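Hi V.,

You were right to ask for the full record rather than a summary. Here it is.
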Amino acid sequence: MQDLTTSRKTLLKETAEIYFNALKSKTFASIPFSDDVVFRAPLAPGGAQNLIKGKQEVFEKWWKPLEPTLDGVVININDHFYKDDLSGVITKAEITIAALGKTIRTADLFVINEEGKITEQENHFDASPMKSYIHHICLRSTDFDRTKEFYTNILGFPLAIDTNDLIIFVANNVFLAFKKADPRNKEFSSFSPFEVGLDHIAIACETEDELHRFTKKLANAGVENTGVKLDSVLNKLYVAFKDPDRIAWEFYMK
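Predicted structure:
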């Protein structure tokens, strides 16, 4: 069994690295996409919310516009994080794009079949100039099933690790981890933003249309939220909402 686990992890790691090597060599044909691959990327038309279906569509809509920027690209792979069921891997890397004069930090999720073909891929990146950045945030959950339902189906965060004691999602290039809650004082068994520590977490929003679409999605799902509001201090629009443990979040305009 251990040998099977090791060989599967090797396949996942090698497949992810083939993808990054293809970016460096500008050879789309070497990427082991399945013919019916499902692909999301922030740089693709429509952004990460728009699914691209099929290898040929990925080539036309994502690779061809991207390829001219890959001259002299430098890629450093930082680490691989394997899904608990070994269906896929999240690979973190730093990519320096000479044509844009930028270094971006990526966390790419690959779902890979037994043949080593990429059946699903979702790219996340952070292009901010900061050199040091948050690696992960760890919160507490009273019910893992509710938490997985909320963060996967409502917020759309890919689930990277799922065990009895720990679940981890990918929120852009930050890992969002949850451990099980065990309140020492049952009086404080749900989250309060008024206690010492965390007040809320804010997710950056690119456009006002995106903000309103997300707010409508929260309302349709019955998630407690404020509706779109204006932050009078920074003059920015946002919507505040709560997860099943009443942990406070905001979707906030850049």
